[in-house]
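Quick one, T. Sequence first:
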Amino acid sequence: MPDTLITSPAGILAVLVGICAFFFFLEKQTGWKLFNYLPPLIWIYLTPVILANPGVIWKGCPAIIAHDSPLFDWMRDVILPLFLIILMLEVDVAAAFRIMGKGVFVMLFGTAGVVLGAPIAYSIIKGHLGPDGWKAFAILSGSWIGGTGNMAAAERAFNVAKGSPEFGLAVLADNFVYIFWLPIMLGSKRIAGWFNKFTRVDPKRIGMLERLSSELPADKGKVEMRHLLYLLFLGLFFSWLAVQVTDLIPLPAKGEPLGAIFSEDTVIILFITTFGILLSMTPARKIPGSHPLAMALVFIYVANMGAKTSLERLAEEAPWFLLGAFIWIFLHGFFCVLGAKLFRIDIHSTAISSAANIGGAASAPIVAAYHNEKLVPVSILMALIGYAIGTYGAIAAGHLCRLLS
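Structure tokens:
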């Protein structure tokens, strides 16, 4: 019997896409509450980990899919920048500031809590992680400021080695801390009266938010084949352009002080993110289908990351990283409350701001609907702002942790 059953790139890609499709089908068809606590993302990551590393669990068992393949490099060089460009098209910074006003600064304070909390938490547990453990904090920063796409971007920016557990640690912590943090954000509604007095909120603020939220435009219309072609062209062209521009810049050598900060991979990711944000300020933002297409590619990429991960190292370091993540999330929460106090923001906006950071576009509407259904549209806007700044914040957090490694 061969050591690995499926080795061809086409076969591996079929398995990865099939895993993504299966878990979303299962979630939709069954409605199991399990997916409220362990969403498809974690299954989509862990299933390829197990399929590529069965020998760790059952000695002598052959791997279902190859642990290494040319497909993985192709995904990193083509699919990752493609979905980052398309994902950024959703961002509408002007609308978020127009509606949330000073509330946007609470989210930015929460972002600061993620960036500054990362080195604090890392310094506490770094002795129990591998030499590249700081990269896991950078990757999780991407998710906790923006979303899964930013997490993948941080993995590329810091050139995480194949088989390293850092991406897996970030995925596990992202999901397990979310299980704990989401009920706190939902339950915060019960202290609205006390909190709003504590932050001295203007009583007219909620009415203003509801009115402006109702003025947001509806969906972008029916998706047609030509829209997908437009999106693919923009994603591929600007991904290519980011590489070409990076090649024209004289980057510092690896041994130089700035070499670790402005590596080729980091600069490419920064250009891709910036191009995507600039495109969101053009009519390209109105092209239908950008979000579902981008997210489909994101989940396939997450499955690809699982297939490359070493299960053995992941299991060793996970408990300590989870401890660091819980310390870290409370630092984020402190910064959110501090921002609300300084800018006199209500508990509803504060909870939505935190959810937009930590949970992204999937969680912010849930928190908003629980607090006030009329705030759901603005919660999505806030999450999209996180997409825009998530990669920049993750790179900043990662380098702060690197200084302590």
